[in-house]
What does this fold into?
Amino acid sequence: MTAAELGAQFATRYHRDAAVVCAAPGRVNLIGEYTDLNEGFVLPLAIPQATHALAAIRPDRVLRVASLDRRDDPATLIDLDQPDAPVTGWAAYPAAVARALEEAGHCITGADVLVSSEVPTGAGLSSSAALECAVALALCALSGVDLAPMAIAQIAQRAENRYVGVPCGIMDQAASMCAIAEHALLLDTRTLSVRQLPFDVRGAGLGLLVVDTRVKHALGDSAYGDRRAACRRAAAALGIVALRDVEVRDADAALEQIGAKAGEEVMRRARHVLSEQARVLETAELLGTGRIADIGEVLVAGHISLRDDFQVSCAELDLVVDSAMDSGALGARMTGAGFGGSAIVLATASHLADIVEEVEARFRSAGYKTPLCFAVAASAGARRER
Ligand code: ADP
Ligand code: MG
It folds into this structure.
């Protein structure tokens, strides 16, 4: 939808013009899966698909929110002076953002808010963070609150943790807020320090595909908690706060100790985390020296580790990786929490069409839903557009 169309939708719904328009993108994680649970490094990038939030001040302390992606839902009224009143459905996200902003000491004005998103929901591309960040930016702009991008990311994460009840890490919100075009964001999830690494796939004659498998396996929710617990047990076996604290050169000894104290399964979960941490740093090194094509092998190694050691892949994600690699991709791996959602594929630009064809053909033969394949470029982070 164009900016003019969005503005017209706002005017139709609320009988006045929007005063601010903000946008925040979804993300894919290039490498560094489940490392954020261990205070480690992640390396996401923003995708071109974004969520827009249009807003205008109200004279009262009410937030009225509507979504063009939930056209059948009536607008929800959220009383800013009743922070404990339950808010159900998708409106829990904007309500959570307003509450987290106020809890952080920022006084928010009442507002009419309309959101509209290009980020597929529930595909592992972080439509929830895009929604939170777009709304947070719009509310800050209306309320005269001036916060650094990472500060907004932290508030959005706290909103999702505390008020929506999803125990997500900081990666999604940090990527949405802090990414810049043609770069991937190396984020230290412990210190929140960031480094922008050049990632101009097109300029390198390459393409980055996102393949949304359009499946979400029920196992995902309980498995997330299990994996969290395994990571904690592994750290406890070493007497450290988080697996992040294991140096690469000490990894073998650490894994032996974890195996002896906490058993084979916990050791394998830890082996993924430690090897993934090394892969993030290796990828960062390659990107820092302009060797984008060389990260392909690292991506595949990451997938194998997630599949075999961390065990969060699924048949559909494995099929994307196998068919992409069989048809000439440089690298491919599941991205996000797993058990469905999306995979990414890195390939030379001239191979992309063949890869999409092969992935689709193999999904057809396997009797799976048709996957959604689209090329992405590393895109700009959240911004105020008007
Ligand atoms: P992901 O972040 O991977 O897309 P989540 O389950 O974390 O998946 O977040 C998806 C939820 O976020 C949706 O179920 C919905 O409640 C909310 N959401 C995201 N974008 C929108 C939108 N444009 N309009 C309404 N709700 C949205
Ligand atoms: Mg999410």
